[in-house]
UniProtKB/TrEMBL annotation:
Family: Belongs to the AHA1 family.
Gene3D superfamilies, sorted: 3.30.530.20
Source species, domain of life: Bacteria
Protein name: Activator of Hsp90 ATPase homologue 1/2-like C-terminal domain-containing protein
Domain Activator of Hsp90 ATPase homologue 1/2-like C-terminal: from-to ranges: 22-159
Length: 161
């Protein structure tokens, strides 16, 4: 399994997931830079993602929705804040309605994804920081750790396809 560690800290309002992959940094970067590849790993296995808009540049946006096994759609967005290809990118991630208007009733996180070479593999550190401890607690209760771990663990399959 690629995910090697998950930590959350309500005091700092952070969720940190660490994963390692048997692929070069540039290959892992391309998964996030290519909307068709991102679709294969963004949602948990039972909630596949569809990327509708993808602009991985500072100020760019990524709009997506995940589809439940029952066909219900759950939309979200990224507002890209920084890109240092292929080392890292940062973005705000939020929930949205199906027209991609932000949902003010659900928390927004600031995210930094960092890609580094580590002992011949790529280590990715995913750090999400929430505005409030309550926002982090809400997504923990919604199953973010299980969902994100399931999504990230799909990367190995994508690498071999």
């Amino acid at each position: 399994m690629p995910v090697i560690d998950t930590q959350h800290d309500l005091d700092t309002r952070t969720l940190t997931i660490t994963a390692e992959f048997d692929a070069p940094v540039q290959r892992i970067w391309r998964i996030y830079a290519d909307p068709r590849q991102l679709e294969k790993i963004w949602g948990p296995p039972t909630y596949p993602a569809t990327v509708v808009e993808h602009d991985l540049t500072p100020g760019g946006r990524v709009h997506y929705f995940m589809t439940s096994p029952e066909g219900e759609k759950f939309a979200g967005y990224w507002k890209v804040t920084a890109v240092d290809e292929p080392r890292s990118f940062s973005f705000e991630d939020g929930f949205a309605d199906l027209d991609f208007n932000p949902n003010p009733d659900l928390p927004v996180s600031r995210n930094v994804y960092t890609f580094t070479e580590h002992e011949g593999r790529t280590r990715v550190t995913y750090v999400s920081t929430f505005e409030t401890a309550e926002g982090l607690q809400k997504v923990l209760e919604m199953g973010i750790v299980e969902g994100a771990t399931g999504a990230i663990n799909q990367i190995d399959e994508l690498l071999t396809s």
